[in-house]
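INFO batch 0412 | record 1 of 1 | parsing
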Amino acid sequence: MTAAIWWIRRDLRLTDNQALHAALNHSPHLVPVFILDPALLASPDSGAKRLAFLLDSLRCLAADLASRGSRLIFRVGPPQEQLATILAESGASAIFAAEDFSPYARRRDAAVARNLPLCLVGGVSVHPPAAVRKADGSPYTVFTPFSKAWKSLPLPRSNALLPAPRQISTPLNLVSDPIPTEPTLPAAVPFPPGEAEAQRRLRLFIDGSAGAPAKIETYADHRNRLDLAGTSHLSPYLRLGMLSARQAAAAAVEAMEQASTASARRSAETWLNELIWREFYIAILHCFPQVRRSSFRPEFERIAWRNDQRAFAAWTEGRTGYPVVDAAMRQLAESGWMHNRARMIVASFLVKDLLIDWRWGERWFMQHLIDGDPAANNGGWQWTAGVGTDAAPYFRVFNPVLQSQKFDPGGTFIRRWLPELARVPDAHIHTPWEMPLALQRQVGCLIGQDYPRPIIDHLEAKERTLAVYAQARETAPEPGA
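INFO prediction complete | emitting tokens
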């Protein structure tokens, strides 16, 4: 009997894996394959922490497969060449993989399918982009109607999830390359790799722990607070498929239905909406692949960006003089992750205060986030810049001081990531430049020496940016011109 190849890409799990089950339905002899693609390694969007997280998670998957009598075949090289070689070596008759929707993934898979027996199945999202369309078949470009259409489709249920296979038979004659040991995942990254950790975190978020309520019950109220651990912290596991989108959505739906209070139900529905935002941005990237390089709204392609290299360096290094911005950027640099509210704050600051092209920030995030995802990252940056599909109005500019006061009221987040401000009193933690000199000396933080002065005046920057955006709109060519 011939074997089937399970080509692993963004589905590093055994639970609820449609590609894995499709391969096993084709043949009981499975060849689990991961191919490290040099084209992705060479991409300017590649990130060392995300690669290390991937490699460590592959080791976890390899151990899970070994415990079931199987083994992971790891290879390095162009996917089409490696798959052709493995087909010949294993005698496999088909390749099964979870369909991905980025421009590169679609080109890669189309090239493989022209020459090899590739079968793409679901798994990256709950519903594929083609399933969530308007009545005329065109894609949605606004989130609210997209989410309503999404929710009108059959909702995922836990009892319909595919179980992890207990035993897997794999041909023994196949050679696997060793999984690279470099780069390594820094200890400061607070995301242990692997499917087991993803499942543990989901249970903790949905069910809580002894003596502590489930965080999903307070998600709506706590998700924007930088000083609270109020989110699921599942994004890296969803990014690489250690947790299926269906399982996460099913957990949200069932938490809504089982909620004991209106507040808990609202919180569960808020988390479900966040998962649907992920699906929305996947659909946008699939239907409008040009957004990876240009604004969805073409009238903003002529913005006269300043693109000051020194200002950009200050932003990346967390020394803008605005504590909430700097704390968030240092969190990213050290941990490979950033709170979603903080992502919006720093993105608005880069684009709307410093007038730096949103694509600079988008790439920086991709290079440093372990959950960096082309669709969600692009969608988030275009939203904040006011140039995207469901964009915030271009004239909405986050005030970093007000955002800091609202979402880190006691300065806990700031002090965690900016130790030089640890002794600054609450009254000045969001605006340390307003401290009297005597107080600066008393707390050991001289502004301009121990911590930088603001590199820009927010109100002046806002007026300048509004004028630049308005000018871009006025001078944009008419559609079809």
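INFO post-check: The beta strands are 4-8, 30-36, 73-76, 94-98, 118-121.
INFO record closed
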